Amino acid sequence: MNNVASDWNPTSWRSRVALQQPAWPSIDELEAAEAALVAQPPLVFAGEARRLTTQLGDVANGQAFLLQAGDCAESFHVAGADAIRDKLKVILQMAVALTYASGVPVVKIGRIAGQFAKPRSKEVETIDGVSLEAFRGHIVNDEPFTPEARRPDATRLVQAYHQSATTLNLLRAFTKGGFADLSRVHAWNQEFVADSAMGQRYAVVADDIERALRFMAACGIDLSRESHLHEVDFYVSHEALILPYEQALTRQDSLTGDWFDCSAHMLWIGNRTRQLDGAHVEFLRGVGNPLGMKVGTDLTPQETVALVERLNPENVPGRITLISRMGRDLIEDKLPAHITALKEAGLSVVWTCDPMHGNTFTTEGDIKTRRFDDILAEVRSFFNIHQSLGTWAGGLHIELTGDDVTECLGGGMGLSEADLGLNYTSMCDPRLNATQSLDLAFHVAEYLSQR
Ligand code: PEP
Ligand code: CO
User: Fold this and answer.
1) What is the rounded distance in angstroms from the CA atom of residue 410 to the CA atom of residue 340?
2) pTM, 2 dp
3) In a domain, 34, yes or no
4) Is residue 7 part of a domain?
């Protein structure tokens, strides 16, 4: 490609305003962490990011569907492989339900192996007259409300890199080493899911798939030679928020001379940091990775067009994924004008729906939650809007976990406000549990099979 503007380099963002950065107490500590990261190997390769752009290009052209899912915020305190494996299981299950219904490939991207940074609406948190830096995710500081825990600690940047490497290593082993083999489609149904109505519905699809595999084998097709049946392409992504970290992992591709942010395959710009002249847009416009951008209700269609043109001047399909997060009550009102404006400007994008962040509220008991019905309603509107405009509803962007948590209300098991305290473990936003995630996937599978 080598189309990077001559006025860009990995540090050019530093002359712009960078929102949502912690006030690092020691510049020496920060510079030491940056130097340590620069000396580390990349987490992903340019060729992988390039392949993802191509696959997302198929989504942009209406020939594939995108499933991007994972935690709101990953934790440094995850011990062992189980939590990662279970998250992968539910994403694979959702992808099976979606592929089976739609007949198109599902591109799978985790919010994982680097999703450690959180933008905050308030810079400081005040309790009983004491004010401390807000919790910004484990890449910056820690949750407890003490001066020590909340002090931004640059050594965490390096810890985030190592934790990402460990997670990514496990994901590569799971997805390429037999765990994601389609003949194991039943084994992804975890026990507590299998007992639910959704789990049973999934088992029917899994039976069908097994039957189809047996049929193909009986016809003489050597399934052992079909790598697509035994391995899965699974990509990783996170919000590119803490720019010194992203810059330190940005490398020049020796094949093409292009720059890639090698901290993840895909990076997205959050809803609070997408200013046209801001540091985040400046940094990301120069890297060759596929990029996401959140589109909330306060963005105008003209601004969306200007941002897409800035981030993708060559109009490469698959380069930009717009992640609509309007909320169930505003999507009908707000989203169509964005889609139309991009269409009229001739810009190619992937449109995906984040039905989580516009539907968050706090209960009277002061617990942050979301209603499954609101999430579903926003997704349904998203599909209806694209149907009526003749555009492709390209994907879903979801906060979920493979655990049996009680963070979102409703869904198949009808979780109520009284249940929220049972197993609420999210460090940030409430996530769908494995059963609710599968429930959502089956609803979306129906919309996909209807179009
Ligand atoms: C998120 O995806 O966790 C997030 C903070 O979203 P947004 O930028 O859309 O608010
Ligand atoms: Co979130």
Assistant:
1) 34
2) 0.97
3) yes
4) no
